[in-house]
Amino acid sequence: MGVERFKAGPRVRQRDSEDTLRFSELTGVRPMIEKYPLERASEAYARILSGKAEFRVVLIGKQRLRRNVKFAVDTIALMDALKIDRAILAGYDYDGRAADIVAVL
């Protein structure tokens, strides 16, 4: 299978975003990240500041938090692919934490 590319602008219809998410899920598209446990957060931050981080740096915490971190990382990867610099995300209760994580990353 060859490499395929697509371009997107900041004005993307909701249906296009939903189609892109479905495509990513069906084809197994995943972001490339560097994972660090919370105990090594200062090391991860230093790596970012030094410019040595090759991918997004993600702090991994408790198991319950990992689902939201994964969602946040996938959301950022999709935004990067679509060249979306800013977005409004909202959630309720525990899922609201995923939106908070996206904001921090």
Calculate the mean pLDDT score and round it.
Answer: 76
What structural class should be given to the helix and strand makeup? mainly alpha
**Low-pLDDT residue intervals, each spanning 5 or more residues:** none
Beta strands, count: 2
Question: What do you see in this structure?
Answer:
By secondary structure, the chain is mainly alpha-helical. It has one domain. The chain is built from four helices and two strands. The chain has a two-stranded parallel ribbon with strand order 1-2. α3 (63-81) crosses α4 (94-104).
Features of this protein?
105 residues; 4 helices; two-stranded parallel sheet; mainly alpha
Layout of strands and helices, then pairs:
Layout: H1 14-27, E1 33-37, H2 41-50, E2 56-60, H3 63-81, H4 94-104
Helix pairs in contact: 3-4
How would you sum up this structure in a few lines?
The protein has 105 residues and is mostly helical.
